[in-house]
Amino acid sequence: MVIRSIRWRLQLWLGFLLVGVLAGFGLMVHQLQGVTQRGQLEEDLERRVAALNLAVRGGAGPSPGGLRSMGGPAGEEAREGRRMPGPVVRGDGDRPRPMGPPPDGTGMSRSGPPKARIPEGAFEEAMAGGPPGGHAAVWSREGVLLRRTEAGPPDLPIPSRPGRSTQMHFRDRDGLLECYQFTELGDCVLAGRSLQPLKRAQRRLGWNLAGVGAAVLALGLGGGWWLSTRALRPVEEIRAAAERISGGALSERIATTEPDSEVGRLAGVLNATFDRLEAAFVRQRRFTDDAAHELRTPLAVLLVEAQSALSRDRSPEEYRETLHATLATAQQMRRLTDSLLQLARLDEGDGLASTLPVDVGEVAGALAEALRPLAVGKGLQLEVHTVAARVYGDAERLGQVVTNLVANAIQYTPSGGIVKVRTAASEDGCLLVVQDSGIGIAAEDLPHVFDRFFRADRARRRAEGHSGLGLAICRAIVEAHQGRISVESAPGVGSKFTVRLPAAKAA
Ligand code: ADP
Hints:
The protein has three domains: 2-84 and 101-199, no CATH class; 250-351, Helix Hairpins; 356-502, Heat Shock Protein 90, CATH 3.30.565. The protein is rod-shaped. By secondary structure, it is of the alpha+beta class. A hairpin with a 5-residue loop joins strand 6 and strand 7. Helix content is 50%, strand content 16%. The chain has a five-stranded antiparallel β-sheet. It has a five-stranded mixed β-sheet with strand order 9-11-12-14-13. It contains eleven helices and 14 strands. Bound molecules: adenosine-5'-diphosphate. Adenosine-5'-diphosphate is lined by residues 404, 408-409, 412, 436, 438-441, 449, 454-456, 461, 466-472, 495.
């Protein structure tokens, strides 16, 4: 249940992300700090070893001048505590010379190797450079410990020399870091420090990082919870509103405080959908009410006719009359139910039997001509001007539109009037116009003529058998063809119905 909640999922993800990032960052900082501190420690030890090395080499040889008496660059570097690139010793005079193995390659001078000794004070001076603390020791080439600091571990074994290396080496032992170097003659100098302060600093840094990380995590999760609660509140409101609407409160809408936010826009779309649903629901209810009302009248007529016929014995003539009346009423009911069925199918989107190329000009011309006797019988002039205009659609349904419009025009035009039917074709599509010089439609009725069951003179038209569904069916058929139907009319002048259909395109 918890994992299904979006809020908890967000929190979990945020938690994972924060823990991952913070742990990674913390570890990196911790490691970096450790490496940097150890690097500094190593550099200090190297400087000290270099200084000690110089002190030892200064004391070796036939002209022991000591560190203090050294001149030239080697002495300078030693005094500055810089690391010496290679061992140098004082030779003769002030001129330093590289001290490599003697030319005979034995590592011994002709009079034997000079004995290692440390000039007075040089050891202390070498130890004085760099940060205080630490320990140091010097061994002679025979492995005899010459000097060592008082500080430092009690046991201070001489390091083993790797080959004949004169490089600096490090060794870690018992929590100590030691740097040592052998001179060319085999004397050994060593400087070391305890790693404890470094480890303590690392531990302190670890705790500090963990503390800061925990605070950031708590802040991040708290902020995330607050944000997700705030962001999801409208969703909760939408759910509650949708529940009320589905419970029957169709006029209920979702209140939005931030209409431009993502959820606000969603609420806007849902509100628009609810508007349309409510309108459709109201239309549907009115349609059902109207349909029931329309059917009740002929049903009442049928019942009255049948009851009065059965109330006493009638002559065959009277029975025949009753049967004619009931037949007419039943036919009216059938027309009505057929129209209702057709509208229902068009509403559902399967009102068109086929979508094939149709020449609206041909269909309109033929059907208008078929109605000519009706027009002539009413003393009307019928003008038909049609040109080929092809659309994709259902020829029978489009014919129904033509018949309804032309029949209405004939119906609502008094004798002596004129009815015009014409079609036109353009690149966009085709145009069908049915115009009459009839009674026209009142301005207040114009917006409603395509509504279901609308009749300008309701009572009279119903009595004449008009259902008020003809134009509603026309509109449904035209819209099923992606077209539009419109009307212009003025009372006493006439009406003009225009149908626009899109041009024939591949289905
Ligand atoms: P019916 O004709 O069955 O009443 P329609 O849907 O065809 O239903 O028409 C609806 C109403 O529109 C009619 O009752 C009439 O008042 C009006 N009407 C339709 N066509 C015309 C027209 N050509 N001239 C004047 N009024 C018309």
